[in-house]
Amino acid sequence: MSSTSKVPPPSARDRIVQTAFRLFYAHGIRATGIDLIIAESGVAKATFYKHFPSKDDLVVAYLDVVDEAWSGQLHAAAEAAGPAPADQLVGLFDALGNACRREGYRGCGFINAAAETAPGSRVHDRTVAHKTSVRAWVRDVAEDAGAKDPDALSRALTLLLDGGLASGALDASPDAAVVAKASAQALVGAAVGPTRRGAAGKTRGRA
């Protein structure tokens, strides 16, 4: 007789974070109150505050989840483009296309959070750390691709990526991702040159 293993239910902390993820992303951080998160996650108030003494603690935990998910999607899209770093710089924009086509897409969770928080706050600092990490990874790939100025190329590509994330939400259309990828291809072609486009490089780890 075969036996099936039961998947353990999510912990109270996980339920809180999952609920916060859904509500923060759909409605915004300021518009989502702690009482609503407690009610929808099905935990006691004491349990909530045991795990998250302040709302900022929960917002940072939410952004950690967003970071892991989005960084994973970017890296997967880059690796799917093949071994050549120049192709990976263009291929990572496929993650943007997938995001813009997702039901309920409301833009970049980090940009949204930054718009709702003051510079220098814990939450704002977490958004800056994420963007800095992504840009550093793109810069490393640009260097592997033989870009003449990896810093300038990584800055241009991440600005293009952020613009595509915002435009995809405003236009409610995945067309922004198509335009962004085409623009990325032109930028990479100009920065790397035809002799380096097909060169394979080492695989960069997660940012």
What can you tell me about this protein's structure?
- The protein is mainly alpha-helical.
- The chain has two domains: 45 residues, Homeodomain-like (Arc Repressor Mutant, subunit A), CATH 1.10.10.60; 139 residues, Orthogonal Bundle (Tetracycline Repressor, domain 2), CATH 1.10.357.10.
- Helix content is 69%, strand content 0%.
- It is built from ten helices and no strands.
- Helix 4 packs across helix 5, helix 5 packs antiparallel against helix 8 and helix 7 packs across helix 8.
- The chain is elongated.
Distance between the termini: 45 Å
Integer average pLDDT: 91
Query: Which architecture name of the largest domain does CATH use?
Result: Orthogonal Bundle
> What is the succession of H and E elements?
HHHHHHHHHH
The stretches of 5 or more residues where confidence is low (pLDDT under 50) are none
Q: Sum up the overall morphology in one term.
A: elongated
Q: What is the tally of helical segments?
A: 10
Query: Can you identify the CATH class of the largest domain?
Result: Mainly Alpha
Would you give the CATH topology of the largest domain? Tetracycline Repressor, domain 2
The main β sheet shows up as: none
CATH superfamily of the largest domain: Tetracycline Repressor, domain 2
Structural class assignment: mainly alpha
Beta strand %: under 5%
> Helical residue percent?
55-70%
Q: What is the alpha-carbon Rg in Å?
A: 19 Å
Number of domains: 2
